[in-house]
Amino acid sequence: MTMDDYAACYSLWASTEGMVLSDSDSREEIARYLARNPGCSFVCARGDELLGTLLAGHDGRRGFLYHVAVATDRRGQGIGGELVKRGLAKLRAEGIAKCHLFVLAGNELGRGFWSRSGWEERNGILLFSSDT
Ligand SMILES: CC(C)(COP(=O)(O)OP(=O)(O)OC[C@H]1O[C@@H](n2cnc3c(N)ncnc32)[C@H](O)[C@@H]1OP(=O)(O)O)[C@@H](O)C(=O)NCCC(=O)NCCS
What we know:
Organism: Paenibacillus glycinis
Bound molecules: coenzyme A
Mean pLDDT: 97
Number of strands: 4
InterPro entries: Acyl_CoA_acyltransferase, Bact_Acetyltransf, GNAT_dom
Keywords: Acyltransferase, Transferase
Protein name: GNAT family N-acetyltransferase
Structural class: alpha+beta
Number of helices: 4
CATH superfamily: Gcn5-related N-acetyltransferase (GNAT)
Radius of gyration: 14 Å
Domain N-acetyltransferase: 1-132
């Protein structure tokens, strides 16, 4: 993914169920994210049509995936799985051994995908957030 893909990505994210957008999805913040994690995020496109996205990055210790999304009419063709595979391969190449991601409670589609893809659903962890 490059910033040339941003507009199409944002419009896919905005129309994807189970995905919450925030200030961190602005053009400036996504540009900073891509610059900080070069080569980790991917899109799947055919011609001008954007089919899927994956944001991936790490903090030097653990990897994190965000915004795994595939256009509704292109699901079930292996696109999501392939995007994740590529993101993980890049994180692994950077020496990152473990990766986490967040799924909104109630997103059963996402939950099913991650479980089917071999990801372990973690219990006993609470997420706390604060403004800096
Ligand atoms: C989740 C999502 C990205 C999956 O994309 P996709 O391209 O349809 O997934 P794939 O075709 O690559 O599927 C990979 C594997 O997961 C399985 N799978 C996909 N969605 C599944 C689901 N909801 N439940 C169970 N298994 C699922 C597929 O059958 C496939 O299994 P296989 O490798 O044994 O054949 C897509 O449904 C989507 O964009 N959902 C909305 C956004 C979202 O919820 N993102 C994740 C939240 S963090």
